[in-house]
Write a structure and sequence with these properties.
With about 170 residues, this protein is mainly beta. The chain has a single domain, classed as Pnp Oxidase, Chain A (Roll), CATH 2.30.110. The chain has 3 helices and 12 strands; from the N terminus they run αβββββαβαββββββ. A 7-stranded antiparallel β-sheet has the order 3-2-6-9-10-5-4. Strands 1-11-12 form a 3-stranded antiparallel β-sheet, with no helix packed on it. A two-stranded antiparallel ribbon has the order 7-8. The N and C termini lie far apart (about 35 Å).
């Protein structure tokens, strides 16, 4: 048995971020309305929370320039990206107004819904919780859809493909 490296204190933020990056996640686009316009944001902190009621969560950095627009949204969508949506992921990582009309539909209230996503969850704000330098946003799912396919993943600071079991 080989010796394991010693555990490190959390005083090195870059090293801690690299360690967090060893957990593979899926990638989502959070969609909402702000000032009458659809907005989106790339997020990999999505998680299912509860089936009854149907709750999901995601997190936003309290210092994000997008914080007010998303943390105050009463409705939002969570769009789970397929493996071929890396370009969409990168656009929304840089620009919250990066919509291509060929990719999205709008719900009755104007919430953007990504057409070819693996799953789409239309949500109403349920609660927010301050958690360190982030805010946890809980949404109650009011509508959803899903389809089979390979997922876009994030691991070690890079996009990757997560293959669906066949």
């Amino acid at each position: 048995m080989s010796a394991q490296p010693l555990l490190q204190p959390v005083d090195d933020g870059r090293a801690l971020r690299d360690a967090f990056g060893r957990f593979a996640t899926g990638v989502t686009i959070i969609g909402a309305q702000h000032d009458g316009q659809p907005i989106g944001m790339t997020v990999n902190s999505f998680a299912s929370v509860s089936l009854s009621p149907a709750l999901v969560s995601w997190c936003i950095d309290n210092n994000s320039s997008r914080f007010d627009a998303f943390a105050n949204a009463k409705r939002f969508s969570i769009n789970v990206l397929s493996a071929n949506q890396g370009d969409c992921c990168m656009r929304f990582a840089k620009n919250m107004a990066a919509f291509d009309e060929d990719e999205f539909d709008l719900a009755a209230d104007g919430t953007p819904l990504l057409r070819d996503a693996l799953a789409v969850f239309e949500c109403e704000l349920y609660a927010t919780h301050l958690a360190g330098d982030h805010t946890i946003i809980l949404g109650e799912v009011i509508n959803y859809r899903w389809q089979d396919g390979d997922a876009l993943g994030f691991f070690g600071g890079k996009l990757t493909q997560i293959e669906q079991s066949r």
